[in-house]
TrEMBL record:
It comes from Jiangella alkaliphila. May act as RNA methyltransferase. One of its GO terms (molecular function) is RNA binding. This is 16S rRNA (Cytosine967-C5)-methyltransferase. Keywords: Methyltransferase, RNA-binding, S-adenosyl-L-methionine, Transferase. GO terms for biological process: regulation of DNA-templated transcription; RNA methylation. Residues 164-448 form the SAM-dependent MTase RsmB/NOP-type domain. The active site is at 386 (nucleophile). It holds the Pfam family Methyltr_RsmB-F. InterPro entries: MeTrfase_RsmB-F_NOP2_cat, MeTrfase_RsmB-F_NOP2_dom, NusB-like_sf, NusB_RsmB_TIM44, RCMT, RsmB/NOL1/NOP2-like_CS, SAM-dependent_MTases_sf. The keyword Transmembrane does not apply. S-adenosyl-L-methionine binds at residues 265-271, 290, 316, 333. Belongs to the class I-like SAM-binding methyltransferase superfamily. RsmB/NOP family.
Length: 449
């Protein structure tokens, strides 16, 4: 392979994201395979690609301060190489000469010699300051415009900074901790699917039990596929926060009968597999509903091997095809902006727009009404999002419940035993900087009549 393979792989991912709207978490493994990268080289390529994507907005501002033309007038491969070089110069321990020379080599190979000379000049100028120096030069002052300063310094769009600030109650120190946590790589967490695998088996293969989920294990390094339980579908990759909200629904008390559970919006199937395993042990059945056929196939794969009589249904969850009050427990993991998983999806913060929230909120509200219609009196609904944005979490629940006297909020905190810093309740908001999980939100609702 010509050139520097880790950087070539990282550059390929940047180009795929920029030019083809690819998802980095899908493009990265393919690039690693093409370049036959493993171990430290694979880790370096991943950090360079993911780190550059996370910091893209800030790096674009820095590059813009060092060129004489608008960024949209630059050759796109040149701009991606400048972003990659800026990341190495401003956010890694890569020596400056190596960051510049390897980035210039990329431009020489993928653009032309003239562009390489330009890249050399721009990157040398970028390397004259560290990130704090560029913040002092380009960002608003912290005192005059905290949102603008933090947006630049921690590479988040300003609207996301404001949303996180609102969700954290205006606590400046916590806000900055949350922004920093979004820029730290997320570890790989596995879920042992009940009745099919155990945490002890995963630990024996090199994983470490998670702090709170009795089914979770953290994999410190290597591909999850190297574990037999993962290859065989008896365990799967699933954030501990995702496990905890599903387990809260499963453990909160419900008067019998308790044998029919519903997972709305169930793709790609991680929570469905966890719930199905628990329900099989109780002699019950799970219906997993998913609107999109390709995601329904993923659910079927996740449930394959579970001995229970569970069903996957392709359909629109806002228009139920089942009778009212037909289920004892309902999980609604609602489609959302995914702002709670920014550390896992490095490009998503720059793709999402404030307008996305309003459209999703309408869908979330409709789905929650459907979930409440589907659960029997005395049964439970878990409303879950992987977002801390108040317009997707507590205010959705507030709006749907307004004027209804047949639903009560249940304090969810006791059903996440041992988990600290859960606030005043009754709802739960997990955070990467507090809990080391994705920022999962959970509201438990009981239909009373």
């Amino acid at each position: 392979m010509k050139g520097d393979s880790p950087r070539e792989a990282a550059f390929e991912v940047l180009r795929a994201v920029s030019a083809d709207d690819a998802y980095a978490n899908l493009a990265m493994p393919a690039a690693l395979r093409r370049h036959e990268l493993r171990g430290r080289d694979a880790a370096l390529a991943t950090e360079l690609a993911y780190g550059t994507l996370r910091g893209q907005g800030t790096y674009d501002s820095v590059v813009a301060g060092c060129v004489t033309r608008p960024l949209e007038d630059l050759d796109p491969p040149l701009l991606d190489a400048l972003r990659l070089g800026a990341h190495q110069l401003l956010a890694t321990r890569v020596p400056a000469h190596a960051a510049v020379s390897t980035s210039v080599d990329l431009v020489r190979r993928h653009v032309n010699e003239g562009a390489a000379r330009m890249a050399n000049a721009v990157l040398r100028r970028i390397g004259e300051r560290d990130l704090d120096g560029w913040a002092a030069e380009l960002a608003p002052s912290r005192d005059a415009n905290l949102t603008g300063y933090l947006s630049f310094r921690h590479a988040h769009p300003a609207w996301i900074v404001r949303a996180l600030n609102d969700a954290l109650g205006g606590d400046e120190a916590e806000l900055e901790a949350a922004l920093r946590a979004d820029n730290e790589p997320a570890g790989v967490t596995l879920a042992a699917r009940p009745g099919r695998a155990t945490v002890e088996e995963l630990a024996g293969a090199g994983a470490r039990p998670t702090r709170w989920s009795p089914y979770g294990a953290e994999l410190e390094s290597g591909s999850p596929a190297r574990l037999a339980a993962v290859r065989e579908g008896r365990a799967g990759v699933q954030d501990e926060g995702s496990q905890l909200v599903a387990l809260a629904l499963a453990t909160a008390p419900v008067q019998p009968p308790d044998e029919r559970w519903l997972d709305l919006c169930a793709g790609p199937g991680g929570k469905a597999a966890l719930l199905a395993g628990l329900l099989t042990q109780r002699g019950g059945r799970l219906l997993a509903v998913e609107q999109h056929e390709h995601r329904a196939r993923l659910i079927a794969q996740a449930l394959a091997g579970d001995p229970g009589e569970h069903e996957v249904l392709v359909g629109d969850a806002t228009q139920p095809s089942w009778p009212e009050a037909d289920f004892d427990r309902v999980l609604l993991d609602a489609p959302c902006t995914g702002l709670g998983a920014l550390r896992r999806r490095p490009e998503s913060r720059w793709r999402r727009r404030p307008a996305d929230v309003a459209g999703l909120r309408r869908l979330q509200s409709d789905l929650l009404r459907s979930a409440l219609w589907s659960v029997r009196p005395g049964g439970l609904v878990a409303y879950v999002t992987c977002s801390p944005h108040l317009a997707e979490t507590v205010t959705v629940v507030d709006d749907v419940l307004r004027g209804r006297d047949d639903v009560e909020r249940v304090d969810a905190r006791p059903y996440l035993p041992g988990v600290p810093d859960l606030g005043d309740g009754p709802d739960v908001q997990l955070w990467p900087h507090r809990h080391g999980t994705d920022a999962m939100y959970l509201a438990l609702l009981r239909r009373t009549e």
